[in-house]
Amino acid sequence: MIPEGTRFLLPPEARLKAELQGRLQALFLRHGYEPVELPALEVYDPHHPLAARAFKLVDKTGEVLALRSEFTTLLAKLLRPHLGEGVHRFQYAGALWLREGDAELGRLREYTQVGLELIGVTGPKADAEVLHLAFAALEALGIEGVVEVGLPSLVGEVLRASGLPPGAKKAAQAAIHRKNLPELTALLARHPVPEEIKKALLALPDLYGEPEVLQEAQALPLPPRAQAALAGLEATLALLDRPVLLDLGMARRYEYYSGIFFRAYTPSFGLPLLGGGRYDGALLPQAAGFALGVERVLEALKPPQVEAPPEVLALDLKALRRFAREKRVELFHGDNPVAYAKAKGIPFLAEGERIWEVP
Amino acid sequence: MKRYALTVALPKGRMFQEAYEALRRAGLPLPPIRDARALLHGEEGGVALLELRNKDVPVYVDLGIAEIGVVGKDILLDSGRDLYEPVDLGFGACRLSLIRRPGDTSPIRRIATKYPSFTARLLRERGWVADVVELTGNIELAAVTGLADAVVDVVQTGATLKAAGLVEVEVLAHSTARLVVNRQSLKLKRSLIKPLIAKLRERDGGP
């Protein structure tokens, strides 16, 4: 009845999902992030980062359409002509679809994201704001998360300075991404790379863990732009003033992520709960953001399967009208309300204006 | 479900013993194999060991059920899973090769293999148009019987090929056993895993 990789939610999960989503949206709003709404259908663009994985359909004109596969790209494109000077904050929430995607452990083909974008400002303070909101989002959800911060631009700058031909550069990036030192070593032995760059490239994959790795990285012979990126990260972390994990060997999409890239994990759940980063110049001159996967959050929280009983059992419609304004009320259908309330654990009975405790 | 300090996925068969020894010598307190038929070894709170089919090792590690594992590069080339591969353990050396009947130079129209994604990628890269038939064992039979014009399979010594009267036309990739690590476990359990990686790399004087 429903295709692979989609879910249906019943009580209490459906309610919990709406509640979690509401909590995040309220949190972002309190920080000045205004909601935006985007259509689920877009015109197919082969240059879209998820073009190959999006669901496609044919419009009545014969034009190819794609189902929304992420929010950032479309939002940035729609905003581009309308954004003036200054700082803009937006939040979004909604379903996304991917044609591919394994239906394993919360890797769904239809899933929900809540996220935000901070546009028109860059630098450590702006990065710290976005990271702070990632922490705040985890707290609002009651999740003990670990936030891991990487700097894909650092690997990017070192690779750019390496003078490797494009094919080898891509292979080196893949090896760094997998922390595959044996293959990286073999690759660098085959190509003439300046000794200092070689040393830095071989050191970066192992620079993960506590913030001490930042000092280790600063001791490496890095090109000036890479050093500037590290100094920026150091300033961001000082402003943020929260414990994070670092991975300076993060090489994911460095052409796109111009600065930090981060994710949040929670122990005993195998997939990241949120992810984001800074992508200045990719879609907009200055922008950073992140998104949470709501289904993953639900899965990580493993909600209690027992549903809390309503607070009041109303014996007539008048009582339902009167008390449902402030309490959770169920209208009674049957013969023995007291026995029913006791069996379900409902503490109060109500009739008309009257409310009394279940004897 | 029991909780373990670390869960290790190892492939059944030839590689199991060597991987077990390598990890133990690197100081990982692996549980003893008391019952050879058990699939999960280990005590709650300690290190657990899963014995899996080699193709399943990347799946368990990617999904975080096992935090680390040992598996051949040949399997990783086919799995498409996003794992860390920090150490080349050196043993289990073999090669992935293109194998045909002697003297057969006709265009390849059908190719049989245990490595369908690797083979599909090869075809795309070379611009060959051929159907990929996925088989699970004795792949050389596909070439011998004419089920396929060629096979892509793992070759260790070449003795099996020789006995089947086939020739290794081209070596496509070299493979050895690799340590694989789940992306988030490397970070969350780094106090256990980082020193293990360092020790394993030291073994033969560096990666």
Keywords:
heterodimer; A: 359 residues; alpha+beta; nine-stranded mixed sheet; B: six-stranded mixed sheet; 11 strands; elongated
Q: Could you give a quick summary of the protein structure above?
A:
The complex is a heterodimer of chains A (359) and B (207). Chain A is an alpha+beta fold and 359 residues long. Chain A has helices spanning 13-30, 72-79, 124-141, 152-162, 166-177, 181-190, 195-203, 212-218, 224-240, 294-301, 317-323, 337-344, and strands spanning 34-35, 41-43, 56-58, 64-67, 88-97, 110-119, 146-150, 208-209, 245-247, 261-266, 269-278, 287-293, 312-314, 329-331, 348-351, 354-357.
List the helices and strands and how they pair.
The complex is a heterodimer of chains A (359) and B (207).
Chain A: H1 13-30, E1 34-35, E2 41-43, E3 56-58, E4 64-67, H2 72-79, E5 88-97, E6 110-119, H3 124-141, E7 146-150, H4 152-162, H5 166-177, H6 181-190, H7 195-203, E8 208-209, H8 212-218, H9 224-240, E9 245-247, E10 261-266, E11 269-278, E12 287-293, H10 294-301, E13 312-314, H11 317-323, E14 329-331, H12 337-344, E15 348-351, E16 354-357
Parallel strand pairs in A: 1-5, 7-9, 13-14, 13-15
Antiparallel strand pairs in A: 2-4, 3-4, 5-6, 6-12, 7-10, 8-9, 10-11, 11-12, 15-16
Helix pairs in contact in A: 1-3, 3-9, 4-7, 4-9, 5-6
Chain B: E1 6-11, H1 14-25, E2 40-41, E3 47-52, H2 57-62, E4 68-72, H3 73-79, E5 84-88, E6 94-100, E7 110-113, H4 116-126, E8 131-134, H5 140-145, E9 150-155, H6 159-164, E10 167-175, E11 177-181, H7 183-188, H8 190-202
Estimated radius of gyration of chain A: 25 Å
β content of chain B, as a range? 25-35%
What's the mean pLDDT score of chain A? 92
Number of DSSP helical runs of chain B: 8
The percent of residues in helical segments of chain A reads: 25-40%
Q: How do the strands of the widest beta sheet of chain B line up side by side? A: 2-3-1-4-11-5
Average pLDDT of chain B: 91
**H/E element order of chain B:** EHEEHEHEEEHEHEHEEHH
| % residues in beta strands of chain A | 15-25%
The topology string of helices and strands of chain A comes to HEEEEHEEHEHHHHEHHEEEEHEHEHEE
What is the total tally of β strands of chain A? 16
Q: How many beta-strand elements of chain B?
A: 11
In whole angstroms, how far apart are the ends of chain B?
A: 36 Å
Report the sheet with the most strands of chain B, covering strand number, pairing sense and barrel closure: 6 strands, mixed
Helix and strand content put the structural class of chain B at alpha/beta
Q: Which residues of chain A form runs of ≥5 with pLDDT under 50?
A: none
